[in-house]
Write a structure and sequence with these properties.
This is ATP-dependent 6-phosphofructokinase 5, chloroplastic-like. Catalyzes the phosphorylation of D-fructose 6-phosphate to fructose 1,6-bisphosphate by ATP, the first committing step of glycolysis. The chain contains 14 helices and 18 strands. The strands form five sheets. Strands 3-4-18-17-11-10-6-7 form an eight-stranded mixed sheet, with helices on both faces. It is globular and about 80 Å long. The chain starts with a strand and ends in a 6-residue tail after the last helix.
């Protein structure tokens, strides 16, 4: 969640800055603020309480040791090695059934060797490509005090020549968890398409998130019924298979074809259900909490020595998962948020002493607000102030802290400020949260969803489990889930992108 402002031309620049500073002080020192965690102090001093630290590794390094880089890279390789079903099973691979040569699935080995469309298991992509000369460089992420260059390689995603499943014997399941996000249906669609290309015929959908594994009355695979005006409704009384024919047009709508829910991640019961249903591949679409649940399922399957590949696809509108360039749904959210900002701008410019206030989602990360502010070009100030508000102490079903409503709080503070100084102000407040979440994916996200969904299937057939399909440094890669759920990604107030936002808005540097 974050806030973006637009004021009418009735305020001069100096008045705007005085008002912004006053509003900031009221937020910081008003009755509703909470203690803010700082890097070195517990006192409330800054509206962006983010501790920016140099990147550190798991292994303890002595930078005076000439071999510290080698030790770091060995630890890195160990951490980013992809878990596989071959870790617990002695399996012999078979030639892949995935080939686009002549648009048909090969019946033998001949097309596999001739088609140069496969990724080698030793292929890697660099996670970081900028060599920072100093820790003081904008956005610097350093390992040692000298900010030495250290290669950080991650596994390239894509189809392999050899696979570890017999497609005709595979039962694959898809589940969408958390809140709605543009692009869910696009990913579901591509997973089904790619599974069928491999030759999988038994594809099921788990309704309403993790709850669909164990709650009574929820059957796997919804039956789709077309009514007047092509309105689609779910009926769980009958069981049918997901197929290309069934999902071919679901990308034209927002929401999730399978339904979503938060929480319900009872790992043992979920794995009991996976085992009872004889599921071989589980594709999990969700954010940080969902990824943590997927990894717990993966670990429980390994503990029980089940031959199950658990592969996640990062779905979070907030773009707050570590190491990734972006998650699907984010671009669409920024585009939709920009429309709300434009509306606030028109309202503010048309009113006498008008002020437009837009509250955008972001769960403390702030990427939607920052990017929407940059793209609109009509914002006077962009704030990411969640940690300054009193927390309710409650959590949602996913375990996320429920924040007080920053938008309503700021709306009231702005009105009070101008009333106190005797200046009339017409505040137009817009909260487009559910409009941002419920729309269909735009072209950029649709492409990202397509590739992520395809790569998720390739990863499962390659035998990987406990991984996520994502994009890093413009390349499609696989990452171990354990490495992306360590902490949420947040806007870095020392980054070049945030500096660009400040330049665009012209706001004071509150940080």
């Amino acid at each position: 969640m974050a806030a973006a402002f637009k004021t009418s031309g009735s305020f001069c620049s100096t008045q705007q800055h005085q008002w912004l500073q006053s509003t900031r002080d009221q937020i910081l020192h008003g009755s509703s603020h909470s203690n803010v965690k700082q890097c070195k102090s517990k006192k409330i001093k800054k509206p962006f309480p983010l501790c920016v630290k140099a990147t550190s590794s798991k292994v303890e390094l002595d930078f005076n040791d000439p071999s510290w880089k080698q030790k770091f890279q060995e630890d890195w390789e160990k951490r980013f090695n992809l878990p596989s079903i071959t870790d617990i099973y002695d399996l012999k691979p078979r030639p892949t059934t995935f080939s686009l040569k002549k648009n048909r699935t090969p019946t033998g080995d001949e097309n596999v060797d001739m088609w140069n469309g496969y990724v080698n298991n030793d292929d890697r992509a660099l996670l970081k490509v900028i060599k920072y000369s100093s820790p003081t460089s904008a956005g610097a992420e350093c390992i040692d005090p000298d900010c030495s260059w250290v290669e950080q390689w991650v596994h390239r995603a894509g189809p392999r020549k050899e696979i570890y499943y017999e497609p005709e014997e595979v039962k694959a399941a898809i589940v969408t968890c958390g809140g709605l996000c543009p692009g869910l249906n696009d990913v579901i669609r591509q997973i089904v398409f790619t599974l069928e290309t491999y030759g999988v015929k038994n594809i099921v959908g788990i309704p309403f998130g993790y709850r669909g594994f164990f709650e009574k009355g929820l059957k796997e695979i919804p039956k789709l019924i077309a009514h007047d005006h092509d309105v689609l409704k779910f009926c769980f009384d009958n069981i049918i298979q997901l197929s290309r024919h069934l999902v071919e047009n679901i990308n034209l709508n927002g929401g999730s074809f399978l339904g979503v829910s938060r929480g319900g991640a009872k790992t043992s019961e979920i794995v009991d259900s996976i085992q009872a249903r004889r599921i071989d591949m589980l594709f999990v679409l969700g954010g940080n909490g969902t990824h943590a649940g997927a990894n717990a399922i993966h670990e429980e399957c390994r503990k029980r020595k089940l031959k199950v590949s658990v592969v996640a696809v990062p779905k979070t509108i907030d773009n707050d998962i570590l190491l990734m360039d972006k998650t699907f749904g984010f671009d669409t959210a920024v585009e939709e948020a920009q429309r709300a900002i434009n509306s606030a701008y028109i309202e503010a410019r048309s009113a006498y002493h008008g002020i437009g206030l837009v509250k955008l989602m972001g769960r403390s990360s702030g990427f939607i607000a920052m990017h929407a502010s940059l793209s609109s070009g009509q914002v006077d100030v962009c704030l990411i102030p969640e940690d300054l508000l009193q927390k309710s102490g409650a959590t949602d079903a996913s375990g996320n802290v429920i924040f007080s409503d920053i938008g309503v709080h700021m709306q009231q503070k702005i009105k009070m400020h101008f009333k106190d100084i005797g200046v009339p102000a017409d505040v137009k407040y817009i909260d487009p949260t559910y409009m941002v979440r419920a729309c269909r994916a735009n072209a950029s996200d649709a492409i990202l969803c397509t590739v992520l969904g395809q790569n998720a299937v390739h990863g499962a057939f390659a035998g990987f489990s406990g991984i996520t399909s994502c994009i890093c440094n413009t390349h499609y890669v696989y990452l171990p889930i354990t490495e992306v759920v360590k902490a949420p990604k947040r806007v870095n107030p020392n980054s070049r992108m945030w500096h660009r936002c400040l330049t665009s808005t012209g706001q004071p540097d509150f940080h």
